Amino acid sequence: MKYYEDGRSYDVVVAGGGLSGVAAAVAASRLGMDVLLVEQMQFLGGMATSGLVNPWMNFHVKYSDGTSEQMSAGIFKEIDDRLASLDALNGRAFHPHVLKMILNSLVRENNVSILCAVIASDARASSGRVEAVELTGKSWKRWVEGRVFIDATGDADLAALGGFETEYGRDEDGAVQPSTLNFRVARVDVEKFRKWRETAVEPGGLAASLLRKYHDEGRLHCARDNLLIFPTTWDDVLHFNQTRLLGVDPRDPASLTRGYSDALTYVAEYLELLRREVPGFENAHLQEIAPCIGVRESRRIVAEYMLTEDDILGAAKFDDGITRGNYSIDIHNPTGAGTVIKRVPAGDNYEIPFRSLIPCGSDNLLVAGRPVGATHVAHSALRIMPICAGIGQAAGTAAALMLEHSSTPRGLDVSLLRQTLVAAGQNLNRPPAGR
Q1: pLDDT tens digits, one per residue of 299-308
Q2: 235: alpha, beta or left? (left if phi > 0; alpha if psi -120 to 50)
Q3: With pLDDT > 70 as the criterion, what percentage of the chain qualifies?
């Protein structure tokens, strides 16, 4: 494993070690760049590991003739295949701690230097160019210079520190989608629960009635009107994406502190409800609570191109498309219960254009992951991990090509970028007409 070295500058500095950051760092290193990857936790994986966000949301497109195609390929597929080879995958549910080890191995094998337990705390930037980023950890602070920077922080921290314009929340009130503290419950009689769930989770069914009853009696304080439960890689363990945390500002440590504290209360209340009321949970026990709140939405950059709701629902394609997706518009109500779902046309997908990775006016900063240029509504579709990994691979590939060809982001030959991504295993095919 390569680690950060004091006083050294790098070709590419990637801030944020989630899936998008790891994919960016590996992609750039494979193209010959000297890469530093920095992460605030002491391990890689971001929301997938520290937030226990699980499972992968859909990354296949199904056609009318019964065939299907994996859209998120490339480095994401490598990660997914490694999970499968280690028996750490159950459908799209993955083992988060095995994922930590896989990501650690991936950066080691590809000669990426890493530094953990630090955040990007400042940036030296002028005239659209970032010269250096300040990294701060416990009793530790350093400036690191680079030639190209990639912001994969999830919150557009580096872009904001560099003075690039960002947006936050929806237009009408600035509110962002609620965060969630994920947790897992073990010793569940899963078959017994599934039989109950077949009828209980219908709109207005028993599950909704139970939640409403506990709310009315003051025994449940989380603003959620349904159960969001997923399988895991363990037979008797279920995953809960359940604690809706309204008003949490991911940029504000005081807000995150209050949010985590409130969520622990919610977890205790849900456990009581489950054991008392839900078949299959009679002998259930809490297995795990995520170390960090799972954040759906924070800052978004103002980019060269801003993806819109029409782009998502219209399955827009772009000359500079760098990854594909068909995940629905999925907006968890920022101010209460309820979720808005709007689906992409069956058998089709949208693309993320490279221009959405470029902050307006940037000469050497790219953004990877969920903060790319998009409206609040469009962002709700592209924020999922397979898409974020594809965006990250594209950002790392673009960074290497920019340095190889002495190019700015806007001057980069996007046909070359697309060709290089395809050669590296990414799937940029377009659905055939009539299929």
Answers
A1: 999 999 999 9
A2: alpha
A3: 99
Q: Give 335-352 pLDDT, tens digit per residue.
A: 998 999 999 999 999 999
Please state the pTM of the whole predicted model.
0.97
Residue-range domains of the chain with CATH: 2-170+297-423 (3.50.50.60), 179-289 (3.30.70)
pLDDT tens-place string over residues 75-106: 999 999 999 999 999 999 999 999 999 999 99
pLDDT of residue 204: 65
